[in-house]
Amino acid sequence: MLKRNPAVAVFFTLVCACLLSACSNEEAQRKAFMEFLQTRIIDKPGVHVPVLKDEDKKVFGDYSAQYAVMQNFHESLNKRTEESLNTAMKQMNISSMGQAMQRREDIQSAQKALNELPALISEEQAKADDVRKSFQQPEDLKAVYTKAYDRVVTQPAEAMKSMMPVASETLTATLEALDYIHAHQNVIKVNGAMIEVSDPAIQKELNTRLQALNAKAQATMQAQRKMVAIIYGRG
Q1: Burial of 82 per CB tally in 10 Å (0-12, 13-18, 19+)
Q2: Domain residues of the chain, as ranges?
Q3: Mean pLDDT of residues grouped by 10 in the chain (235 residues)?
């Protein structure tokens, strides 16, 4: 007859207790993390990336690292693009063709920045996506995390990448109009927002170019509104 070994029984009791404790702890951390994602990110309009406090990290345990990928994306993206993007937006703030003629170099500089930024955004987005793919997540967390990640990483990145080529096309149309005016400056006079053309044929061609420019500008405004709606939660 086999004899029960008290020491072995105690050992297995302790092991089971530790396993149950670990499971219970993980479940509490997961639920706290899910609630954080839902209430602090998903339920709020726009993009919100709160900075975790030390007590938050303790409550979330290892799940803090899964939030860090979203936070790191924004920190790195802002560091790499904020200055050039803000400068480009200021350089694009032109109210008349006369002002555009005076600021041609600014327009070219803004276009250069806009053409370079989508690649930087894609690079940072790819980094975040690669880290995210490594996560092993229970289905309940995966559903909530996917919504939060889409809100603060995918949507703003795609909106910014969509807006910049449209804005660049507007600048291209502006530069083409400026080139046409310069090539026919003997019959085209620009004074601020006023444009006078003494040749009807040149007037017709210029109007065609300006109409194309206005259409591109409208498309840029629509893309900007979409980006603002996503990032700030307002139209």
Answers
A1: exposed
A2: 21-40+48-232
A3: 49 44 76 97 95 94 96 94 87 89 93 94 97 95 97 95 94 95 94 93 95 94 92 78
